[in-house]
Amino acid sequence: MQTLMDKCCDQCTHSPASPCKDYILCRKTGPICHDDENCRRQRQEVLNTIHLSEDSGRRQILICAGTGCSSSGSRGLVDALQASLKEHGLEDKIKVKITGCHGFCEQGPLMIIEPQKIFYTRVEAADVPEIVESHLINNQVVERLLYVDPISGEKAQTYETVPFYARQKRLVLHNCGHINPENIADYIANDGYLALTKALFEMTPEQVIEEVKTSGLRGRGGAGFPTGMKWSFVRAAEGDKKYVVCNADEGDPGAFMDRSVLEGDPHAVLEGMMVCGYAVGADEGYIYVRAEYPLAIQRLKIAIAQAEECGILGENIFNSGFNFRVKIKAGAGAFVCGEETALLTSIEGNRGMPRVRPPFPAQKGLWGKPTNLNNVETYANVPQIIRNGGAWYASMGTEKSKGTKIFALTGKVNNTGLVEVPMGITMRSIIFDVGGGIQGGKKFKAVQIGGPSGGCLPDEQLDLPVDYDSLTAAGAIMGSGGLVVMDETTCMVDVARFFLNFTQAESCGKCTPCREGTKRMLEILTRICEGKGEMEDIDTLERLARVVKNTALCGLGQTCPNPILSTLRYFRDEYEAHIRDKRCPAHVCPALLVYTINAEKCTGCGACARSCPAGAISGEKKQPHVIDASLCIKCGNCMQKCKFGAVEKA
Question: Which PANTHER family match (predicted)?
Answer without folding.
Answer: NADH-QUINONE OXIDOREDUCTASE SUBUNIT F
